[in-house]
Amino acid sequence: MKLTVSIAISAVILVFCEPKPNKVDPYGFLIQFGYAEKPPTGTGLDKNTFERGVKKFQAMMHIPQTGKLDAVTSRKMNSKRCGMADFGEGNVDKRRIAFATRQDSPWSGGKKHFTWFLEQSSGQFSSGAQRSMIDKAFRYWADVSGITARESSDLNSADIKVRFASRFHGDANFDGPGGVLAHAFYPDDGRLHMDDEESWRDVEKETGTIMTLVHELGHNLGLTHSSVEGAVMYPSRGTPPEGFNFQLDGDDIYRIQRLYGGPNGPNPPKPTKPPVVPTQPSGRLNPKDCDRYSRFDSIVQVPVYGESYEDIFAFVGRYVWRLDSYDGALEQRSTLQRYFPGLPSKKMFSAFYDRDLGYLFLTSLKTLFTYDVYRKRLIEKKKLSFTTYAAFMDPEKRNTAILMKTRGSSSIYFEFNTITRRVEGRRKYSRSRWSFMNRTPTAALISASFPDHLFLFSGKSYRTVDLRTYNFVGGTRSNSRAWLRCSKAIDRY
Ligand SMILES: [Zn+2]
Ligand SMILES: [Zn+2]
């Protein structure tokens, strides 16, 4: 009798001391973290959607894109991570789902000075230790950017409200030990929640706890997840080793400075660690280049430094302009190979990017190039039966691009399936929602920053189509003024 009782008690203790993290359901995982769209209630994820989601997750994790739930993929799904989705925003209009990738965005009103309050503390550390860790975490961002932070004495007026909470805590459900460690809200919502069932004191220790706080504060400040593995904004991580000297990555620094400027004003003299990307030129572009290279052969928005932000690339002959989606040229024109190593040095007639797959497609005469943006390598080169002069992803149809065939003619276009990489349909403009087009442009762009607009380029100018009405809006505008920032006017439409 006595023996039975003691076995029962030790079993209970064992359960509480070494809780086994639940194995995640891969279907739920893909939906929760933005790798697959939620299917209508009552149906499951179909095989294709599942495989595509797995591939996208594998790309983010930098492991082979098999599309299958192999051991390494399953291990990655079960690793510790942030509760925020890696892609998508969840509540977007279905039609725009392909363009729903969230972009980094700062607090409104140019806010740079933040206050914080520890709303609900953990029993694992003293309250003083927790407040000191929040302060240290904030300092990682404040040291390299234009923000400042101080503790508030009042919960209600504080911008950032930190809580250690477990299971259901008002806005969502934490999953117990392992899996999701924390989550936070994007501007202007400053809620930051840490899962209090994690072993912050014993396993994560101060370093792991601060790393998590820095990551979540990154969300509060407007940063999304990064696909750069060493970045603090990468969605998952292991347990930091003893004595680990945690530092921000160049990717983190570049992105926070993009939102809030450097520590000494808009253009910092030198960040603590040089960013991995070239910084914005302070002066104007060479005016001769502005004119000579404003006839775009093709234009596309694509992430080249991690999925979290996308720049626009305008191809001109063998050169490329890298443009900020809001603010014009980021630097003087450069070669294709600088951003897309492995691509041939050719004039690219059209370009489009499927965010679902992470593949950039380019055409040069009748050759189609498929390029893996994450791995920076050419996947396939094949012949099409016609020359495409402009192309863009169909705003209403997933994994479908519209290829416009001839210059000067208005009769037909093709539908291209980005998964099979085949031309699947030949359509007449006159019988489609594109019937208002009376000539074929030489380049076309739908930017994630302006998802309701299609920009059609021809010569040194462009026109804008409102995708809510499928009609032109505004008149013809100059590429060099609006896209290259060769003059002050940046108003796009
Ligand atoms: Zn996160
Ligand atoms: Zn929460």
UniProtKB/TrEMBL annotation:
Ca(2+) 4 binds at residue 297. One of its GO terms (cellular component) is extracellular matrix. Residues 259-287 are annotated as: Disordered. Binds 2 Zn(2+) ions per subunit. Residues 1-19 form the signal peptide. The active site is at residue 216. Ca(2+) 2 binds at residue 159. InterPro entries: Hemopexin-like_dom_sf (IPR036375), M10A_MMP (IPR033739), MetalloPept_cat_dom_sf (IPR024079), Pept_M10_metallopeptidase (IPR001818), Pept_M10A (IPR021190), Peptidase_Metallo (IPR006026), Peptidoglycan-bd-like (IPR002477), PGBD-like_sf (IPR036365). Ca(2+) 5 binds at residues 299, 351. Zn(2+) 2 binds at residues 82, 215, 219, 225, 233. GO terms for biological process: collagen catabolic process; extracellular matrix organization; proteolysis. Keywords: Calcium, Hydrolase, Metal-binding, Metalloprotease, Protease, Signal, Zinc. The keyword Transferase does not apply. Pfam families: Peptidase_M10, PG_binding_1. The keyword Protease applies. Residues 265-278 have a biased composition (Pro residues). Ca(2+) 1 binds at residues 196, 198. This is DgyrCDS522.
